[in-house]
Amino acid sequence: MAGPNFWGDLVRHLRQEQGITQRRLAMDTGVNRNTLGNIERGSCDGDMGTMEKLLGHLGYELEAMSVTPRKPREKTACLKPAKT
């Protein structure tokens, strides 16, 4: 799911997993159904507010899903250095 349309694929997957139609999700969140379809297809990127509405309704917080830099961890035995 980490392709070029990560967020759209994620919204579609969560929506379908919960048995929610595009129409229902759009009505419940106030997001235009055409916009929702475009996000899921990757035709457009949803702004932060739109993504927060969609993911929030599907039970997730956008902030919790964002990648934030953190201090590097010490290497453990299961990690191997990348070959160059």
General description of the model:
The chain is mainly alpha-helical and 84 residues long. The chain has helices at 6-17, 22-29, 33-41, 48-57, 62-65. The chain has one domain (6-64): 434 Repressor (Amino-terminal Domain) (Orthogonal Bundle), CATH 1.10.260. The chain is 51% helix and 0% strand. α1 crosses α3. The radius of gyration is 17 Å and the shape is globular. It starts with 5 loop residues before the first helix and ends in a 19-residue tail after the last helix.
Topology of this protein?
Blueprint: H1 6-17, H2 22-29, H3 33-41, H4 48-57, H5 62-65
Helix pairs in contact: 1-3
Mean pLDDT: 80
- How far apart, in Å, are the first and last alpha carbons? 27 Å
Structural class: mainly alpha
β-strand percent reads under 5%
Q: Sketch the major β-sheet.
A: none
Summarize the structure.
This protein has one domain: Orthogonal Bundle (434 Repressor (Amino-terminal Domain)), CATH 1.10.260. The chain contains 5 helices and no strands. The chain has helices at 6-17, 22-29, 33-41, 48-57, 62-65.
